[in-house]
Write a structure and sequence with these properties.
Layout (H helix, E strand, L loop, with lengths): L7 H7 L2 E6 L16 H10 L3 E5 L3 H14 L5 E4 L18 H10 L1 H21 L4 E2 L24 H16 L6 E5 L20 H17 L4 E4 L17 H11 L5 E3 L6 H4 L4 H11 L4 E2 L4 H14 L4 H19 L15 H14 L1 E3 L10 E6 L13 H8 L3 E5 L25 E7 L14 H10 L3 E8 L1 H8 L8 E4 L4 H11 L5 H7 L3
Parallel strand pairs: 1-2, 1-8, 2-3, 3-4, 5-6, 6-7, 10-11, 10-12, 12-13, 13-14
Antiparallel strand pairs: 9-14
Helix pairs in contact: 1-11, 4-5, 5-6, 6-7, 10-11, 14-17
Amino acid sequence: MSCSPIDRLAQKIAELIVVRASGHLSDPQRRYPRWELNNATLERLLHRGVGGVILLGGSAVELQQRTEMLRRWSAQPLLLCADVEEGVGQRFEGASWLVPPLALGRLYQNDPQRALDLAERYGRCTGDQARRCGLNWVLGPVCDVNNNPANPVINVRAWGEDAATAGTLAAAFQRGLSRTGVLGCAKHFPGHGDTSSDSHLDLPVLPHSKERLAAVELPPFQEVIAAGVDSVMTAHLLLPELDQNHPATLSTTVLTNLLRHDLHFDGLVVTDALVMEAITKRYGAAEAAVLAFEAGADLILMPADADAAIDGLCDAFRSGRLPMQRLEDSLQRRRQALKRIDKHQPLNPAQDTPLPSESERQLEQELVAACLHLQPSTGINCSQGINLIRVDGIVPCPVLSGTAPALRLPEGQGFKSLVIHSQGPSPWQPDQDSPLALERLGQGPVLLQLFMRGNPFRGTQDSIEPWSAAVQQLQKLHRLAGLVVYGSPYLWEQLRTVLKPDIPAAYSPGQMPEAQQQVLKSLLNRSHTAACNADFTD
């Protein structure tokens, strides 16, 4: 009973499917071939009528070429999107990589007007660069309230740790984005901020009542909807007080009753990626797509099998399980969204326009400087020590290329770099008071740089590392030359409680090269190296 490739119903349904592709042009360059379709499959699905592509990886210039390629393969206007919550440069090299949104949430507590201004410029920069690269849909702003410091997946991606801050700044971002003619997306409805597990790996449970949601989780979505956001993305989490049987993505109570009826949202509802294990552990590709559409979703993002999703939806419409009017409603919402894009100048990537522009480059620098925290001290005066770096992933990675300032600047002062990463040897020994195996590090003072933030797919594995004990161990041996935390404010706050006030230290929410440059230029001091080296003994 499934649809044939030339079936008109199948073509209509395919318009509402969004598949994943690499931003790179050729198949061997794909970073995540498990999820990123090869070019032959991608071209076939676009010919079948698939109406959207989410992209990741490559350079900004390559993305311009890639989006043009995808448009040539499709006979219809495409929705082309990316998870660029921290600027286009977060995913595509060469564009602006901005500080995480939570950095402005923290700034808002002390300087609200400056934070609001920066958030709006942040949205404008993201939208302008997305458009110049050929994208017409930004999957942001995040509207989750990160009121749970143990959250392993939202963390610094949120605009605030309370509802008022998160809503105000996310709405400011959306206003900036709207001016560029690029669609926005509020996520992850009805709120993923108060979870302690990662929906990429399993199904989080949020035991909150509708009243609690109305007080904490929903206000940022309401503010961003009022600011004119074009789409809302669902969350893969279970709210048993609302629906005991289905995660929010597949729940009529959440998507139709709460989002459509109570919050009066009539834009596009898009699922979070259906390849995430919160869904795939429980549902097949076809059934997940049908349940999401039945619940009130319009767009199906990254089904585990696009063909199966299309065929499953065909069967559901033909059998009467899904009413045809629902399909027409979703297609109309998609057409309206594309019209809003078309009201602006035709999307024509300007390959001769530099990325970033001078004003965008200034914004990158201003954001880092505004959110940088330095512990007052004399600065790092040592040389010929150990530059110990922890990266919460594998290397090479975007934050730590071979030319990264976190490597280059200390090495220029005589430090020897040692990088700890997920696939490398463990630096730990089974001693709670002296957890670092220092004999593996070598002699001399240690500059400790920690690139730690909530990251999808890592769960809680980074949070159990005993960095407080490690800092105390190095201080006890007079070997801690300095400390830098890039990313999580919660780790920084934890380590500051055990850090001696005379230790040079800094915190930057951003991990990108611009942040490394500003931090280390502030901390490193090339003078008095001999005196300093004499002070550091085993």
